[in-house]
Amino acid sequence: MSGIIEEQRRKPARIDLNCDLGESYGPYRIGQDEALMPYISSANIACGFHAGDAAVMRRTVRLCLEHGVAIGAHPGLPDLAGFGRRAMQISADEAYEMVVYQIGALIGFVKSEGGVLRHVKPHGALYNMAAVRLDLAEAIAEAVYKVDPELILYGLSGSQLTRAAANRGLRAAEEVFADRTYRSDGTLTPRTEPDAVWHDADSAAAQVIQMVSVGQVRTREGGMIGVKADTVCIHGDGPHAVAFAETIRRRLEGAGVRVSAP
Question: What sections of the protein cross the membrane (predicted)?
């Protein structure tokens, strides 16, 4: 993936901590949504394709409003069994339609509860595919723009998705990941490979501080690459998600970085 930012950046005064939430459905309970609320500033709510259902969307929107957490849509591939993390062969038109459909579903709940939708972040395989496939990136950016040009599109730092957002006239939030390792081309290590995920909060927090303060991250190959950090992702479905969120927020605030939504 080309276009990864090379220069170091000065430590920002503010950073967004976002988390993927609302991923339970039916009788299945995934994540610790309520416990995570005090530590995050933005939530990406599943819209029913890879996870979530109508009742969970409504409940998660209410939680966000109660805690003052910015609400975002988290559209994914139609792959409930694979949690949206398996790549699928889809066209740009299909990507556009999936994203419009899922944003529309969540907007209904957000408006009915008196809230405002603030951003969109694709999920899982759709997110990773759009990071490198220009046609998918442009289709997703177009879908978001057509629904509401005031929405912010979250995408992997330096990716095709954030470039497509900027080219379409959308605000883009360059995203980095607390609990994932990076490859030398700036993409995330696939979950199917060893050492793709950090499993302890201190290692994840150290990576976040480095990305936020100096704009660099160490790759799995051992080198350093540049990243731009507007928002940091913490996954809500991991067994130690709350400990990760608490440690990362404490370390950021201890370094003088304020946590707030874009």
Answer: none
Amino acid, single-letter form, for residue 3:
G
pLDDT of 132 strictly over 70 = yes
User: Do 157 and 176 meet the contact criterion of CB atoms below 8 Å apart?
Assistant: yes
Write the burial class of residue 70 (CB in 10 Å: 0-12 exposed, 13-18 middle, 19+ buried).
buried
Residue 59 lies in a domain: yes
Q: Is residue 184 part of a domain?
A: yes
pTM greater than the 0.85 cutoff = yes
What separation in angstroms does the CA of 227 have from each of 35, 52, 82, 106? 29, 31, 29, 30
CATH number at residue 98: 3.20.20.370
- State yes or no: pLDDT of 171 exceeds 80: yes
**Total domains in the fold of the chain:** 1
> What residue numbers bound the domain in which 209 lies?
14-259
| Average pLDDT of the residues in 133-153 | 98
What is the four-CA torsion angle of 236, 141, 153, 36, rounded to 10 degrees? -20
Q: Mean pLDDT throughout 160-166?
A: 98
Contact 96, 147 (CB under 8 A): no
Residue 8 belongs to some domain of the structure: no
pLDDT at 3 over 60: no
Identity of the amino acid at 231: T
Task: Measure CA 91 to chain center.
Answer: 22
Give the span between the Cα atoms of 16 and 259, in whole angstroms: 6
- 108-123 residue pLDDT tens: 999 999 999 999 999 9
Which H or E run includes 119?
strand 117-120
